[in-house]
Design goal:
The chain is of the alpha/beta class. It contains 15 helices and 9 strands. The protein folds into 2 domains: about 150 residues, Rossmann fold (3-Layer(aba) Sandwich), CATH 3.40.50; about 180 residues, no CATH class. The chain has a 5-stranded parallel beta sheet with strand order 2-5-8-1-9, covered by helices on one side. A two-stranded antiparallel ribbon has the order 3-4. A hairpin with a 4-residue loop joins strand 3 and strand 4.
């Protein structure tokens, strides 16, 4: 299931308070999607890492109540207390928790209570974890616990990631490289002993490294520490080959004539255009942009056009739209 489809499925199940387990390899954005749903709905979000807990931490600690002359369990303070009526309790890395901790989660997941504690009615439970084949220190989930979830498996989709990265202001060279090499977005090999490998999460680190403008001699070790030495060398060579790029303001004001010939530069150029184009762009600037895109090679012009439409730019209102369709429409099929 691709990220966008996984997110829509989660939204439906969260609405109905159905417990969900989201499976997937490391670094693909499982926790980010769950947090994003909570933020967009304006509800609470609590990320609970069961790997950091002891079996007694979920149930609480018993103490003697002198009034009732009974031992009472004091529930943990880190669980939702009802201050926020709705929210998502996110049990990340559930299957890496020790079996005794997983057992302690049984009652909380199924009965929405454990010991003296009761989960507020407006809160949903979502868990996530890596698969046994992902070289993680996971414990096989007992069948009774597994049966308490709806299981969804998430996979990588380079096109969806590229759209997300453009919306979030990633450096155009990072987005352009993934557009040219979609297989480089995720390069995890469970049999490899390398500590660094490419995932959507580690490419986010690369974006931050590039934006920090480190000294040239630091760039290679920093990026190779994020995505691995081989891929880092390829990315930096590709980035260098992209060379000089047109001025974006000149493109949108109709003053730029130069279109790069190098495919590497064209991938970066496409990302820069999409990032710069606001859905509320004026008709004049849109006409200038469309006129410039008429000069781009067909496949890159079409790729840019599709990303503009995904971002909400109504390209059809441009007076150049019909000319563009006449020139490149056959490539849309």
């Amino acid at each position: 299931m691709k990220p966008e489809e996984a997110k829509r499925a989660l939204e439906h199940l969260v609405e109905q308070r159905v417990p969900i387990f989201l499976w997937g390899p490391p670094g693909i954005g499982k926790s980010s999607i769950v947090k994003e749903i909570a933020e967009q709905r304006g509800i609470g979000f609590m990320d609970l890492r069961l790997t950091l807990l002891d079996p007694t931490d979920l149930r609480g600690i018993p103490f003697f109540d002198s009034g009732s002359q009974k031992a009472v369990w004091a529930p943990p303070a880190f669980l939702p207390d009802g201050t926020e009526e709705e929210g998502i309790l996110f049990l990340d890395e559930l299957n890496t928790a020790a079996p005794m901790v997983q057992a302690g989660a049984y009652q909380l997941i199924l009965d929405r209570r454990i010991g003296e504690y009761r989960l507020p009615d407006g809160w949903a439970i979502v868990a996530a974890g890596n698969r046994e084949s992902d070289r993680g220190a996971v414990f096989r989930m007992p069948a009774p616990l597994a049966n308490r979830f709806v299981h969804l498996e998430m996979e990588i989709d380079a096109r969806q990631w590229r759209s997300w990265a453009l919306e979030n202001g990633f450096d155009p060279s990072v987005v352009g490289f993934i557009a040219a090499r979609p297989d480089a977005l995720f390069a995890f090999d469970a049999k490899s002993a390398h500590r660094s490998f490419a995932t959507p999460r580690s490419w986010e680190y690369v974006d931050k490294i590039v934006k920090s403008t480190p000294e040239p001699e630091l760039l290679m070790p920093l990026i190779s520490g994020s995505i691995g030495e081989e891929l880092a060398a390829e990315f930096l060579s590709w980035r260098s080959a992209a060379g000089e790029l047109p001025d974006m303001e000149a493109v949108f004001s109709g003053e730029e004539e130069m279109v790069p010939e190098d495919p590497n530069a064209l991938y970066v150029l496409s990302s820069m255009i999409v990032q710069r184009a606001d859905p509320k762009i004026s008709k004049e600037r849109l006409d200038n942009l469309m006129g410039y895109m008429m000069k781009m090679p067909g496949e890159f012009s079409v790729m840019t056009m599709k990303e503009l439409q995904r971002r909400g730019v109504v390209v059809e209102r441009s007076s150049v739209w019909k000319l563009w369709i006449r020139e490149f429409g056959y490539l849309l099929a």
